[in-house]
Amino acid sequence: MIKAVLPGDGGFLAAADTPDPYGAIHTACWALYGGDGGPPRFWRTVQGGLLSLAGDRLTASGPLGDPQELAAFCAISGAQKLRGPRTAVEKAAQLLGWQVQVRQILSGQGTLCPHPPPEDFCEPSPRQVYPLLSAVFGLPQEDFAPWYCETSHKLRHNQGRLLGVLAGGEIVSTAGIYHQNSGAALISSVATARPYRERGYAAALVRALAQWAQDEGKIPFVICHNPAALSVYRQVGFAPWGEEWVCFRKGGLL
């Protein structure tokens, strides 16, 4: 059974404080919306599973129980996308008939390979980073305001970290930690402008963030489906950890 978590309920946060990428995602979402008295954004299952809703994306992890209930819950919550470890969401995705993108989860728990930081290594502002993310990932300009507010909030409250490489007055490579808890840090939004690729920028940024996470006593994670990105992460010292399914309504945008 899926039950809503009341705003301010510390039990959800305690349950999400696990050394894995989904604990980091749930925790980051709670930091933004956990005190909100609006519509429910967080749920728990009697088996110990967790669900959190950010925008139209529902993240699910842990033992969720009946996959038919999870499939129905996606419709009830208004979710257009469902993400989580394959073991948690596969059967519900099959019942929904949604399209699926399979991603690899890697952890940087072991020894990291050396990748010295390049020249003009910096900690950019979200405003400096977004043009690059928009160009590489095709993010629309109208998404900037909510992304900027959320990312700025995380940086102000030490819940995230951005790194970049500056060239010609612009950020040409970036990576960041956008989700973390006491035991895990999820590195994401790794992007390099096309003319500056194959210079080791991405590997250096990911390595720096992973080292920072390890120094904080956290396991660094990345999630990807891009073979080139997968190669970069392995060069840094990341190893396979699991498989994520990102499921979305047919005809919808990932």
Total beta-strand segments: 12
Ranges where pLDDT stays below 50 over 5 or more residues in a row are none
Q: State the distance separating the first and last CA atoms.
A: 28 Å
Outline type: globular
What is the spatial order of strands in the main beta sheet? 1-2-3-4-5-12-6-11-10-9-8-7
**Rg, please?**
18 Å
Keywords:
254 residues; alpha+beta; 12 strands; 8 helices; 12-stranded mixed beta sheet
Molecular structure report:
This protein has helices at residues 10-16, 21-33, 67-77, 86-96, 126-137, 144-156, 201-215, 227-236, and strands at 2-4, 42-45, 50-54, 57-61, 81-85, 99-107, 121-122, 161-167, 170-180, 184-192, 219-224, 239-248. The model has no long low-confidence stretch (mean pLDDT 93). The chain is an alpha+beta fold and 254 residues long. It has eight helices and twelve strands. 42% of the residues are buried. α7 links the parallel β10 (184-192) and β11. It has a twelve-stranded mixed sheet, with helices on both faces. The two termini are 28 Å apart.
